[in-house]
């Protein structure tokens, strides 16, 4: 891929990537748990976004103003995001799982002038007791909320024509907050130009989206992954997006995939794992599916094998961060490399570097690094120049994730830098141990951390969630240890296993290993 093809024009508004598909083609198909359905065409989506953009600008919001948006899997979410981009407003996505303390931090740190929220989610904003000195407008949609402006009324009398704000490719478009495992989350700034590059990397090369496809990306609004796939990648490609507004249930998901003949699926590793554990997978027909991708955490080889056997689909594992885009993906061109992260999508921009900031030798563990001139890299950590500067080593942005690359330039994930275990001089990536344990029929979920040991420095400890009806006995512990030894190098087996009911996770579903290390 030519670098020039990833660089947006100097004057560029990201909304234009969606608006160019203006037609009566269905843009979004929505369904809820009760079976109610709705659709909206690209033309109607754009008209509604134009009406809202007019309403927001008439309130006095101007290009560059920050807007905190908290919504859920609804068609209106797409209207809101598109309208804000058109008006040149900076969207700060906020998950519906956030609480008042999280929201007040985002409102004040971002200096947001407005908040737009689904009416059923406003209670957490109402629970805020601290001052929010920058906030001028509270806007709700769905139902009327006392003392909140109505989004529907803002749109009601407005024109469905709007001239997009004259934004530069370097102007802020999104201010996303990392889920964070320590301290306050960092505000990650993405520009309009970032979105331009993201579309050309992730949508076409990884998601493999065609205009004729029905695409289901299960991420919820409020996370950067929703911006990545359900919003930008699907609508920017001119495809039709499928939205399911309901709770995750592995049987239900498979039924929806079958009944709707979904062509492209983007799920979390956890969702794939839960589906793969079902005993009746063979009852489902996913013949419509030509591409399935996974991102968020490394995906177990066992799960990939199950989907290959049952549906003849090779899940394309992908790696990226809030600060960037999809960087590395296993596009399944070589089945011997299944279980690896894959190869960098733009190889000259991604490297594994050693502690001196130099490219690491083949098969040596190092830090995944991104060249600072990568077009889909974030601009800065908002209001935090020190952290921004410290996240770079000379020409590279340091992801904090550890991997090694083989002679064919396939990357093999080893874990977060702080998660890597050093035991008796051996370097052990927790994912490899977790992957082995997940293959055991009794294991539902697991996480591995280092446990301090006076002789070995550290030993491997596994926290294991068992499947329903299975008891964590001494006999099972020995069985799991022996099982892991068969699938990994013997020194990597978990010398200590603790059975727990649930794993601690961030709001975005990532395992909080720091909490496990604290309570080990």
Characteristic terms for this protein:
520 residues; alpha/beta; GMP Synthetase, Chain A, domain 3; nine-stranded mixed β-sheet; five-stranded parallel β-sheet; 27 strands; 28% helix
Task: Walk me through what this model shows.
This protein is α/β, with parallel strands linked by helices and 520 residues long. The chain contains 15 helices and 27 strands. The strands form six sheets. A nine-stranded mixed β-sheet has the order 2-1-11-10-12-13-14-15-16. It has a five-stranded parallel β-sheet with strand order 4-3-5-6-7, with helices on both faces. Strands 17, 18, 20, 21 and 22 form a five-stranded antiparallel β-sheet that branches. Helix 2 packs across helix 3, helix 7 (192-206) packs across helix 8 and helix 9 crosses helix 10 (269-276). It is globular.
Q: From the structure provided, what is the oligomeric state, counting identical versus distinct chains?
A: single chain
Q: How do the strands line up in the largest sheet?
A: 2-1-11-10-12-13-14-15-16
Low-confidence stretches: none
Largest beta sheet, briefly? 9 strands, mixed
At the third CATH level, what is the topology name of one domain? GMP Synthetase, Chain A, domain 3
Q: What is the CATH class designation of one domain?
A: Alpha Beta
Question: What CATH architecture of one domain do you see?
Answer: 2-Layer Sandwich
Distance between the termini: 46 Å
Per DSSP, what share of the residues sits in E-state strands of 2 or more residues?
25-35%
Shape: globular
Helix content: 25-40%
| Total strands | 27
Number of helices: 15
The structure class reads alpha/beta
Residue-averaged pLDDT, rounded? 93
- Our Rg estimate from Cα atoms comes to 23 Å
By CATH's scheme, which homologous superfamily of one domain applies?
ANL, C-terminal domain
